[in-house]
């Protein structure tokens, strides 16, 4: 699938502290596909060289899982750009970047998200994500953290997607954003929001035909997760190396 040109660097930097604005995928694409083997992998064959990705930022292309085209209840992998452009939008807005998150409390009623939420929900497989704690409450000094599962296993975030047609070129562009909810006790120590993490038993229901699976948009159990302080090197998406995940004192 052809995608539009990524946003200017200045626009990207402005998104770096928005929750949830960074993820990491330590797995190769082949490993990720095996971990989510219920989904048909054909739609992401061309993404192999992009992973692992240790510092995944908005505007990049990711493998996501959507309902199969035949609506049989199975999943299929497709590629999509992080930053939602709704299908009804007439042109790509250049003044500000598209939303990368949608709040669970208002997703069913917000005009930007409600259509996609009702019919185009997706899973976003990752190995973990990053968050920044405002140390002094002023926004001037922030400590980054990495968050993952205690057992190191990959997991899926709840997302919504849409397909937008560029009126100038006719290109079809698939984009997505993540759903966020109030934090667990663990996450509340560093931030007032967290991404919606889905249990594997809820995957089929989230991407299925149900119009409003609102009860799935809830904090994930803290006892299954872990987080650790990391260095500020993660602040620049240009730094995409394994040592970003190294813990610091």
Describe this structure in words.
The protein has helices spanning 9-13, 29-35, 114-119, 185-188, 203-207; strands at residues 23-25, 39-40, 53-56, 61-67, 75-82, 101-103, 121-126, 128-134, 142-149, 155-165, 172-181, 194-195, 197-198, 225-229. With 249 residues, the chain is mostly beta strands. The chain has one domain: SOS response associated peptidase-like (hypothetical protein yedk fold, Alpha-Beta Complex). This is Abasic site processing protein. One of its GO terms (molecular function) is single-stranded DNA binding. One of its GO terms (biological process) is protein-DNA covalent cross-linking repair.
Query: What would you call the shape?
Result: globular
Radius of gyration: 17 Å
Strand content: 25-35%
Strand count: 14
Biggest β-sheet: count, sense, barrel? 9 strands, mixed
Mean pLDDT: 90
Task: Based on the coordinates given, report the CATH architecture.
Answer: Alpha-Beta Complex
Count of folded domains: 1
CATH topology: hypothetical protein yedk fold
Query: How is the quaternary structure best described?
Result: single chain
Look at the structure and name the CATH superfamily.
SOS response associated peptidase-like
Give the CATH class.
Alpha Beta
Helix proportion range: 10-25%
Give the H and E element order. HEHEEEEEHEEEEEHEEHE
Count of DSSP helices? Answer: 5
Kindly name the structural category. Answer: mainly beta
Note the gap between the termini. 43 Å
InterPro entries: SRAP, SRAP-like
Pfam family, one: SRAP
Enzyme class: hydrolase
Keywords: Covalent protein-DNA linkage, DNA damage, DNA-binding, Hydrolase, Lyase, Protease
């Amino acid at each position: 699938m052809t995608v539009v040109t990524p946003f200017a660097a200045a626009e990207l930097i402005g998104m770096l502290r928005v929750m949830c604005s960074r993820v990491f995928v330590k797995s190769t694409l082949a490993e990720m596909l095996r971990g989510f083997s219920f989904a048909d992998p054909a739609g992401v064959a061309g993404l192999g060289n992009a992973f692992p990705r240790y510092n995944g930022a908005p505007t990049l292309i990711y493998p996501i899982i959507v309902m199969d085209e035949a609506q049989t209840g199975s999943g299929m992998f497709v590629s999509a750009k992080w930053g939602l452009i709704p299908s009804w939008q007439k042109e790509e807005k250049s003044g500000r970047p598209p939303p990368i998150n949608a709040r669970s409390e208002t997703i069913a009623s917000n005009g930007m998200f409600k259509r996609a939420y009702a019919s185009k929900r997706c899973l976003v497989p990752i190995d973990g994500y990053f968050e920044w704690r405002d140390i002094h409450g002023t926004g001037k000094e922030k400590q980054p953290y990495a968050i993952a599962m205690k057992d190191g296993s990959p997991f899926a975030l709840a997302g919504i997607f849409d397909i937008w047609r560029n009126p100038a070129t006719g290109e079809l562009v698939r984009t997505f954003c993540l759903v966020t909810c109030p934090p667990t006790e663990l996450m509340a120590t560093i931030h007032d929001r967290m991404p919606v993490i889905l249990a594997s038993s809820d995957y089929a229901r989230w991407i299925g035909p149900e119009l409003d699976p609102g009860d799935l948009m809830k904090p994930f159990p803290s006892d299954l997760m872990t987080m650790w302080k990391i260095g500020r090197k993660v602040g620049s998406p240009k730094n995409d190396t394994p040592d970003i995940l190294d813990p610091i004192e």
